[in-house]
Write a structure and sequence with these properties.
With 398 residues, this protein is of the alpha+beta class. The protein is built from 14 helices and eight strands.
Length: 398
C-alpha cells in the first residue's frame, strides 16, 4: 500500500515530528516544566471542543448501517476493505447546509467519517463520487494524521514547512480516494465538483479542466499555494488522473516571499500575512523597549563610573571627620560630569543624587566593616529599575 502515500509525506512527517518534539522539549526545559501545565490545559480544552463536535454528529447526524442507507454503507465498507482497514470507523451523514465536503475525526480512540448531505446528493448520479470522498477521509485515519498533530503543533506554523506537510497529507488522501474509486476519471470528476458545483460537474470537460493546471506556475499562483494547506484543485485532479503526471514548476521568487509568511492553516496566505504582522508587532512591542532599556543601561553604567571619584571623596571625608560635608564645592568636587549629568548632595544624610539625561541615580551611604563607607545605588525620578546596570545595587546587596 506504499503507492497510496505521496512521496514527500513521510519525509515531511519525520521532519515536523522531530522538530516538534525538540520544540516541546525546549519549551518544557525553558519554562521549568510550566509548559506541561499548558499542555494539560490544552488537552482539557480539546476534550470539551471535540466532545461538542462528536455530540453534534451523533445527535444530529444519521449513522450509516446495513439497514440505514445500505447503498452508502456498502460503499463505505467496501472502501475500508480496499484500504485494508480491519477496524471500520463509524460513518455518518450530516446536513451540510450547502457545503460540498466530508471530514474525518476521532475522539477518545473512536474514529468517525462524516459525509455532508450536499456532497452525497451531488454525487447521486455518480456512484464513484462518494467513494472518492469516503476514501479521502479514510486516508486521514489510516495514515494517523489526527494523532500526531499535537506533537507537531509548535512547528506547524513555520513558513513553507507547515503548508508543505499539509499539502502532502491531502495528496496522500487523494490517492486513497483514487484507490476506492472505479476509475481515475471518476475520481477527477469528484474533485471537480468542488469547483463546478453540485450540478455542473456532470457536464465538465475533464481534459480542458486538467489543462488549467498550467496556470499554477505564475508568481501569485505559486505564492498562494506555497502558503496554503491544499494544492490547487486542478493539480489535485490531474494527479488522480495520473499519479505520475508532471506538474508545472512553481515560480522560484514565490518561495522567497512565502518563506516569510507563517502557515495559517486553511485560512490561507492572506491570514498568514496577518499572523506575520502580529508576530512582528509583538516582537517590536517587546524588543524595542528592551533595546531602549539596554542603551540607557549602558549610558547609566558610564555615569556610575564617572561619578565614582565623587563618592570616594565623600567617603574619605566622612571617615576622617565623622561628619557630612556642607557641600560638594567644599571638597572640590565638580557638580557636573563630562556628559552633562549634574551632582547634588543632601548635607543631612550625605545622599548623592546624579541627574542624567535619562533620569536620576541616587547613591545612599552606609557604614561597613572598619568604618568603610559603602554606597547603595537605586533609581530615582525618570529612571526605571530595568534601566539600571548590574553595578547599581541597593545598600546591603552584593
Amino acid at each position: 500500500m506504499n503507492e497510496l502515500v505521496y512521496p514527500h509525506e513521510r519525509t515531511l512527517s519525520t521532519i515536523t515530528l522531530v522538530l516538534g518534539l525538540v520544540a516541546w522539549l525546549g519549551l518544557i526545559i525553558g519554562t521549568f516544566g510550566s509548559a506541561l501545565i499548558g499542555l494539560a490545559l490544552g488537552f482539557v480544552l480539546y476534550l470539551f471542543i471535540q466532545s461538542t463536535l462528536i455530540a453534534h454528529i451523533k445527535g444530529n447526524g444519521v449513522e450509516l448501517t446495513e439497514s440505514q442507507f445500505p447503498d452508502l454503507y456498502a460503499q463505505f465498507t467496501s472502501c475500508c476493505d480496499r484500504l485494508q482497514m480491519t477496524h471500520h470507523p463509524q460513518a455518518y451523514i450530516l446536513n451540510g447546509n450547502g457545503g460540498l465536503n466530508a471530514f474525518a475525526t476521532k475522539f477518545l480512540g473512536t474514529q468517525y467519517v462524516v459525509l455532508l448531505s450536499d456532497v452525497v446528493d451531488a454525487m447521486a448520479k455518480h456512484a464513484d463520487g462518494v467513494r472518492f470522498y469516503i476514501g479521502h477521509e479514510l486516508g486521514h485515519l489510516r495514515m494517523k494524521h489526527l494523532s500526531g498533530h499535537l506533537l507537531r503543533w509548535p512547528v506547524l506554523w513555520l513558513p513553507l514547512l507547515g503548508a508543505a506537510y499539509s499539502r502532502a497529507r491531502e495528496s496522500t488522501c487523494d490517492r486513497h480516494g483514487l484507490a476506492c474509486s472505479v476509475s481515475p476519471e471518476g475520481a477527477a470528476r469528484s474533485l471537480a465538483a468542488l469547483s463546478a458545483g453540485a450540478e455542473r460537474w456532470k457536464d465538465l470537460d475533464v481534459t480542458a479542466y486538467l489543462r488549467q493546471a498550467s496556470h499554477t506556475s505564475g508568481f501569485w499562483m505559486s505564492f498562494h499555494e506555497l502558503t496554503a494547506g491544499y494544492p490547487w484543485l486542478t493539480k489535485r485532479a490531474a494527479r488522480v488522473m495520473n499519479t505520475e503526471a508532471p506538474m508545472p514548476p512553481r515560480n522560484g521568487f514565490a518561495y522567497l516571499l512565502a518563506a516569510f509568511i507563517p502557515y495559517a492553516g486553511r485560512l490561507g496566505g492572506g491570514f498568514g500575512l496577518l499572523i506575520l504582522i502580529y508576530i512582528v508587532g509583538i516582537l517590536a512591542a517587546v524588543g524595542i523597549p528592551a533595546y531602549q532599556d539596554y542603551t540607557i543601561k549602558v549610558k547609566v553604567s558610564a555615569v556610575i563610573v564617572d561619578s565614582q571619584n565623587a563618592r570616594e571623596t565623600l567617603g574619605s571625608f566622612y571617615q576622617s571627620n565623622q561628619k557630612v560635608p556642607d557641600s560638594l564645592d567644599s571638597l572640590g568636587i565638580r557638580s557636573q560630569l563630562a556628559d552633562g549629568s549634574t551632582l547634588s548632595l543632601d548635607p543631612n544624610r550625605m545622599v548623592l543624587t546624579v541627574r542624567t539625561k535619562h533620569g536620576e541615580l541616587i547613591f545612599t551611604p552606609s557604614v561597613g566593616a572598619n568604618g568603610r563607607i559603602l554606597w547603595g545605588c537605586t533609581n530615582g525620578e525618570g529612571l526605571k529599575p530595568t534601566q539600571l546596570p548590574p553595578s547599581c545595587r541597593p545598600a546591603g546587596r552584593t
